[in-house]
């Protein structure tokens, strides 16, 4: 049975027996990304925004140099 997107209820397009924990699946309709956190049964967790942002690091480096 296909898993539905928790955001828009559209069926997610992936084979449940072909994903592993840590894989990322995305909803074709709304683009929301989910991480597979369990496989029996399939459990998905919403992927938050990027945890690492190079622009922020560069900005911090410039501030540190000014001190």
UniProtKB/TrEMBL annotation:
Protein name, per record: Lysine biosynthesis protein LysW
Composition bias type Acidic residues, residue spans: 50-67
Highest taxon of source: Bacteria
Residue ranges of the region described as Disordered: 47-67
Classification via Gene3D superfamilies: 2.20.28.160
């Amino acid at each position: 049975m296909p898993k539905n997107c928790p955001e828009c209820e559209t069926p997610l397009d992936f084979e449940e027996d072909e994903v592993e924990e840590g894989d990322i699946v995305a909803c074709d309709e709304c683009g929301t990304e989910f991480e597979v956190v369990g496989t029996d049964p399939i459990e998905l967790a919403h992927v938050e925004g990027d945890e690492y942002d190079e622009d922020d690091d560069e900005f911090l480096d410039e501030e540190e140099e000014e001190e």
